[in-house]
Specification:
Antitoxin component of a type II toxin-antitoxin (TA) system. This is Antitoxin. The chain is an alpha+beta fold. Helix content is about 60%, strand content about 20%. The chain has helices at about 5-10, 15-25, 45-65, 75-80; strands at about 5, 30, 35-40. It has a three-stranded mixed sheet.
Length: about 80
C-alpha cells in the first residue's frame, strides 16, 4: 500500500491527500491508535472494487438459485414475514 498517516495528520492535509489520490493515483491508509481504519483511494480503485463485489454477488445469487429446489411464491414469503 502507499502512504500511512494518523487521522489527525490526514485531517490537516485532507485537500492534498485527495489531490494525491486523484492525480498521482496514490493510496493513503489512515490509522487510529496504530490500526488501519480507512483509506483514501483513487476513484478508479473504488469503482473496480464495486465491480468485483457486484460480480461476486451475481455469482452467489446464481449459485443460490441453481441450488434451490423449491420455488416459493412472493405471497407466501410476505405472509411468513408478516408483510
Amino acid at each position: 500500500m502507499g502512504k500511512e498517516m494518523t487521522i489527525t495528520e490526514a485531517r490537516s492535509n485532507f485537500a492534498d491527500l485527495v489531490n494525491q489520490a486523484t492525480y498521482a493515483k496514490e493510496r493513503i491508509l489512515i490509522n487510529r491508535r496504530g490500526k488501519h481504519v480507512a483509506a483514501i483511494v483513487p476513484i478508479e480503485d473504488m469503482e473496480l472494487l464495486e465491480k468485483i463485489e457486484d460480480t461476486i454477488d451475481v455469482k452467489l445469487a446464481r449459485r443460490a438459485l441453481s441450488e434451490s429446489e423449491e420455488i416459493i411464491a412472493w405471497e407466501e414469503v410476505a405472509r411468513k414475514l408478516g408483510l
